[in-house]
Amino acid sequence: MGPPLGTARAVLRLTLEAVEGGRPMAMSLHTRLADSPSVQAALAEAATLIDSAHLHLRRSAEFIGAAAASGNTVTLVERTRVRMDAGHASACLRQAVQAPLTVSGTGSFSVTRTIQRHWRDLETASRHPTLDPGLAKEMYGRALAGDDRPVGPMV
Fold first, then answer.
1. Mind giving me the DSSP string for 49-110?
2. pLDDT tens per residue across span 108-124
3. Does 80 fall in a domain?
4. How many domains does the chain have?
5. What pTM was computed for the model?
């Protein structure tokens, strides 16, 4: 999940550079993107979603490190929570990138623009089966309910 997290951060950074550069907001009376409340809200939402993904991933990484160091057996609930954290982080990062792309406009999708490559890479990586938030919810929910029947081979 490190590369998708870095990719989302890069999309936000590129968008902030455009906003801070004084670019006007198309089809509006705002002379700068930075003056638009909707742009401000979109940037705040994107940053918060990226932070949320980071916090979930950090929690899982710290848990895995501590569990490995202790040698204790990890429970099904704990294993599926790690999977849930990754699925949730993946969904957060995909959602986080949507707002900056909207702020950046249709030009963001030009094949010559770096931002579209980041978007495409994140969309592809986040669709790996181990990051499927729906499957992660099913696994974690079953474990929380005490149902230990497997949903998939990797938990």
1. HHHHHHHHHHHHHHHHHHHHHH-PPPPHHHHHHHHHHHHHHHHHHHHHHHHHHHHH-GGGGS
2. 888 888 999 999 999 99
3. yes
4. 1
5. 0.90
